[in-house]
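Late entry, written up from scratch paper. The run itself happened at the end of the previous shift, but nothing got recorded in the book at the time, so transcribing now.
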Amino acid sequence: MFKVERVGPKRLNMEFSGKLDSTEMEMALDEIITHSEGIEDGEMLFEIPEFRFPTPSAMAVEFSRLPAMFRVIRRFSKAAVLADETWVQRLSELEGMLIPWMRIKAFKLSEKPVAEAWLSAD
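Output as recorded:
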């Protein structure tokens, strides 16, 4: 399952749970692209209550859309990741080190108010 919601003029909230197949991945990427239109210096909040790797066909869809996704990522400067699995938190923060213009910080699922406060802070 993947849900995308635009919250305000410069914020997306996304929830990702379970395993995505190629159809779900395509729909999720379309939603992210659509909901992020017009955002500059934006913020993202990812909630990941249960992570499973996407199917190989879903990964192929994601790789085929990398140029569009890089354009989307450039619209954002901060991302908070809510996940209880330590490896998901660490991988998220590592990804933040690879994207120089974006700050990514991981939190436990129970820390949603703290993550939202961090996103809102300058």
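Helices lie at 22-35, 56-64, 66-73, 86-98, 112-120.
(Scratch paper discarded after transcription.)
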